[in-house]
Amino acid sequence: MAIENAFSQPLVFAPLSGHHKHTVILLHGRGFNADVFSSQILTTQMSKLPLPIQNCDQGLELGSQYASTGLATNFREALPDTKLIFPWGRKQRATVYKRSIIRQWFDDWHLSPNMTTDVADLRYDEGLQTTALGETVAFLHTLIAKEAELLGGAQKVALGGFSQGGAASLVAALLWSGEEQLAAVVGMSAWLPYQKQMMEHFDSPSSCDGANSLDCDELDLFEQSSLADDSGSDHTSTVTTSLDWLREEIEMPACGRPVSQQPKGTTSVLLCHGKQDQQVYAECGRQATEVFPRFGLEDVVWRTYEDVEHEISVNMLCDVATFLRTKFESTNR
């Protein structure tokens, strides 16, 4: 239950260069706030400007190599033409903390008795319940739309966050329905809620054995897709079905853009995770890398960090800055 009905005004940091060319929206984790999170991001020292990021499959060790002439010492200097926005999560009663009042982006809990703590592991989707996630996504979409209008398109806007803030960002990116895709979405020690249920639409779209009549009835509604002449229409129908299911689950309004109207641009995805994270296991983040390509977001980078727990390390933040800068540079061409 939300104690605050409205979202507070975000903290906004203008571009250091004085030229507003891009916007990055970053969400704090559960139990934190925009003041603390922005201070952590903006005061972390980076010795020099990171090299342009590449997919780790190409062999580049990120977070350890820097441009020899780079001068940036922090996140803002690495992205001098970028406005940084840090929204505030609303104060809500957190079920996993015995209904204590904290700032969070949504209240999540589990029907399974062995999932009663604030831990996301391989069983996270089992019986998952969420409250206010749809309201958070709608709020983020409003922020994105405002910045896209100012900048001339959503390809100049990126979204991301830490832990639960990252989870909300990933859902918001999937459900964004503007004329242009977002430039990028970043999850730091994050996970994708409902990824198991969404993947089931792709893995067994017509497998009904009578065990669950409700599921079979729902799937029957989409059997017509198998009659389509276009070989890609089945996949498009499955994507639509999965996203519509997610919107309904989190109580979001239906997408206003026709399915046939594909948005311009591509959204790049960066998922960063500490290998020693005992609160959101790294495997949860890794599994999300398999989900995004199913929805057409194929530019996915997965990074892990030795000896890093549920936190943002210096190398992780360097990778995020490099990833965003490289993406923005590519959209400027």
From TrEMBL:
GO terms for cellular component: cytoplasm. Keywords: Hydrolase. InterPro entries: AB_hydrolase_fold (IPR029058), LYPA1-2/EST-like (IPR050565), PLipase/COase/thioEstase (IPR003140). The keyword Hydrolase applies. Residues 62-202, 262-326 form the Phospholipase/carboxylesterase/thioesterase domain. GO terms for molecular function: carboxylic ester hydrolase activity; palmitoyl-(protein) hydrolase activity. Belongs to the AB hydrolase superfamily. AB hydrolase 2 family. This is Alpha/Beta hydrolase protein. It comes from Coniella lustricola.
